Amino acid sequence: MARIANAVRPRLARAEEAVRPQVARAVEAVKPRLAHAVDITKPQLARLTAVRPGKTWQYTAVAAGAGLALTAVVVSAAGPWDSTGQRTAERHRAVALDGTGGADHDGTSGGEGVPAPAPSAGSVLAGLGTAAKGAARATPTPASLAAVLDPLLKNPALGSRHTAVVVDVATGERLYGAGPDQALTPASTTKIATAVAALSALGADHRFTTRAVLEPDTEELVLVGGGDPTLTAHAETDGWAGLRDLARKTAKALKKRGLDEITLSYDTTLFTGSQVHPIGVNDNLAPVTALTADEGRTDDSTSGPVTRVADPAADATKKFASVLREQGVKTTAPGPSKATSRSESLAEVTSPPLSTLVERMLTNSDNDIAETLARQVAVATGTRADFAGGGRAVAATLTRLGLPLKGTAFRDGSGLDRDDRLTAHLLTALLVTAGDPGRPELRAVLTGLPVAGFTGTLAGRYGDGAAGVVRAKTGTLTGVNTLAGTVVDRDGRMLAFAFLTADTTDPGAAQSALDRAATALAGCGCG
């Protein structure tokens, strides 16, 4: 702890003065849940010390995650809190940090563990960014940021083309821009756009329902997929909707009707078009269908690349049938069908709120969730629910939010398609919009971002840099490295940033260069 606990006391003091009124109101609202957390963090906060000028800023990570101390005073990373004062999702991810965590598109990162479901971001986030507006804190100047970033972004490891934007989240003012409107392949940072579109179109509290229905004339049992990408067939559901639970409820309902042998079918008609991504069969993504269990994984993993089943809907229905048999109900071999309007609902299970799914998608860089959410946006907006339709629906939804889409192209929801195009301007605009106090339904976009050094695709990065202070979505394809997220600078300002690169030749070197740029922002007293 002595090595890690440095550099934050001056920043905490400045940030605390700026946001004291908002934090006081938030603490009053959640005092019973935070009291225990405060007791836990007091000893660590007492030991915080300053470092010599020129050192990178580091963060004391109490309770093995992005700790309560900095989070509470800057109100930048607030989200669902458990009784230890830590985001529930981050606590569970921190426990699973045997590997690098998360998944990205090049297949070099992986690891098991998944964020536990957490409620939508609550009122503790209502003041995000507002405190700084009225606080006498120095705003970083374009000239000072250019002096810091220009040399770092000239690193040859960042390839022949790169763009960057830094924005003050509180004011929306652009503080730095290098090719802000040049559209490049965004890789997995596309998921930020998908998240904003899904939360806007569907609402943070929206849930997806998987149903078992009975056709009255034929006594055919139909398992109807509702497009829940987190449905699980595991005995331990960890809060996700359980296929086994649905089967047990269904068997009970059938027996009440005197049925112990039925014809079994499954309905995936909520989505249309090809299930296979344009890149082809890939370990980073299962065939996209409205009915799937455990993302069609062929092992017990919950994130990262792995071989997938060829037909997730049929696989899920077979698992459903297996539990029915355990409950004394025999079934035929399942086949595709479509439930009629006359069907009777026997049982259903629902996903956690959409905000929780968005957090899991962003933390783990989950391509399966991303592609499903893009299609759910298409369904919600009356667009054809396939890969192309999902992209059009995401773009249309972002346009309605007034976001800058000039030059952009959405070919999918995950960023696996190399023909996707986003700008650094759009990515920072998405983050600023997610932090708008008037749009609390979008807050999961910020709370779901991986935490440097602790969660998801940033778990193995920033070991000697801005661990716990940077929160960002990574993106990696061959020749492409991107990073977009938020950081709190030395003056307590929350900054949104986006760095996109093209034609990189060494992904490790490119990642390190991007991390140094984000770390520089964290250590910047650039007012």
Keywords:
single chain; about 525 residues; alpha/beta; six-stranded mixed sheet; 14 helices; about 35% helix
Report on this model:
This protein is α/β, with parallel strands linked by helices and 527 residues long. The protein is 35% helix and 13% strand. It contains 14 helices and eleven strands. Strands 3, 4, 5, 6, 7 and 8 form a six-stranded mixed beta sheet that branches. A five-stranded antiparallel beta sheet has the order 2-1-11-10-9, sandwiched between helices. Strand 4, helix 7 (243-256) and strand 5 (261-267) form a beta-alpha-beta unit. Helix 6 packs parallel to helix 10 (367-380). The radius of gyration is 23 Å and the shape is elongated. The model is unreliable at 1-103 and 106-136 (pLDDT under 50). It is an enzyme of class 3 (hydrolase). Belongs to the peptidase S13 family.
